[in-house]
Amino acid sequence: MENPFKQINQPLKEVPAELKSKVMHDIAVAKLLMELAELFSYNIGHIIESVTEKRDKK
Q1: Alpha-carbon distance 28 to 31, whole Å?
Q2: DSSP 41
Q3: How many angstroms separate the Cα of 43 from the Cα of each of 15, 47, 57?
Q4: Residue whose C-alpha is closest to residue 38's, from 46, 50, 49, 48
């Protein structure tokens, strides 16, 4: 079995364009899903803070 750590100092190889575009597309979709989830989810920290402030005022 070849030692994979010997390849660390080797020059990088060019990635095929179709693979690169697929990876970039997948990253863009993941980022979009994360932003949508953040948009439609509750900010739990803000909710807890506002509830504790309302309890302190009473």
Answers
A1: 5
A2: S
A3: 40, 6, 22
A4: 46
The average confidence (pLDDT) of the chain is: 87
Q: How many residues does the chain have?
A: 58
Distance CA 54, CA 42 (A): 18
Q: Scanning the structure block, which residue is given the tokens 């980022």?
A: 31
**Sign for the pseudo-dihedral over CA of 32, 34, 40, 46:** negative
Across the range 22-33, mean pLDDT stands at: 97
Structure tokens at 47: 């909710």
Is residue 10's pLDDT more than 90?
A: no
